[in-house]
Amino acid sequence: MTATFILAFIQGVADITPHSNVLLDGFGMIAMVAMMPILSLQLLGAIYQQRSKKEGI
Q1: Which residue has the higher pLDDT, 21 or 48?
Q2: Which one, of 39, 13, 17, lies nearest residue 26 by Cα?
Q3: Distance CA 53, CA 45 (A)
């Protein structure tokens, strides 16, 4: 659902921006939306690991 709304926004921005490619910018935005949950979980895991080492858990 998010990718649908963001894709339309990015296509509009890429359409009015000189030297941009609508297809490549749209694909990059969908890839970023798809990867964000994975990256946020990895970041949360790294923060938890660092804090648990400091506290000696």
Answers
A1: 48
A2: 13
A3: 12
Question: Who contacts 15 (Cβ-Cβ below 8 Å, separation ≥6)?
Answer: 22
- State the pTM of this model: 0.59
Give pLDDT tens digits for 14-34: 888 888 888 888 788 888 888
* Three-class DSSP labels, 9-51: HHHHHHHHCCCCCHHHHHHHHHHHHHHHHHHHHHHHHHHHHHH
Tell me if 20 sits within 8 A of 47, measured CB to CB: no
Six-digit token pair at 7?
Answer: 């894709």
Residue 24 Cα to chain centre, angstroms: 15
